Amino acid sequence: MPQDLTIFHSLLLFTTAFIAGALNAVAGGGSFITFPTLIFTGVSPITANATNNTALWIAAMASAGAYRHNLQIPRKQLLILCVTSLIGGVIGSIILLFTSADVFKKLLPYLLLSATLIFTFSDLLKKWLQFQSQNSSESPPLLILIIAQLAISIYGGFFGAGLGILMLATLSFLGIKNIHTMNAFKSFLGSCVNGIAIFPFMFAGVILWHQAILMAVGGSLGGYLCAHYARRLEPRLVRIFVIVVGYSMTTYFFIRG
User: Fold this and answer.
1) 87-111: b or e for each residue (b if 16 or more CB lie within 10 Å)?
2) pTM of the predicted structure, to 2 decimals
């Protein structure tokens, strides 16, 4: 595993992390940029996944901090889904560590394709879910939401791309109508999943700390600035950019694999 960074690779990782932090604060999909960049610099896929998760966790914390005033969620739901996210994040990260490099390399194009498809159709999914929640006379049982969040968190601990969009689907069933509240809750739960996953990765020694810290600084700046100035960006153009990058990276890894 390469530990030393060239100036070019350092600038590349910082810049892509800044862009990823901005994307995650506005529309999501930042991992489509940072994860392939780590692999481009010579990092193996599992190590790249763990390092990327660690770096963007701090960026997610910055984004969650910017939305903290919108985190108006009943304490019971907040606590239950927080604990569920922590458990799922640990399970997912441990599954990743017990997955062989060859198997993960073969899974990678399909994971990227799944995440890209989720992102592409996320608007339709959110509209449908909001329609269902508005026309439903009662909320689904809390147990169903816990199971859904657990499955999503396991996926997040294992790979993570598209995690925020999947969590928005769960949160829509809680009857939350304010998009800023949903984004705040999504950012908080995402921080729980990615944050707890760092510990198994750290004990296994698969995190490249030089890369992670460099990307964390870039991602935090991008996430914090864009969480405050998101209204100045055109969401449709951001989405198109992320979708193009997502399908490009997916195609590349299918050809490469």
Assistant:
1) bbbbbbbbebbebeeeebbebbbeb
2) 0.81
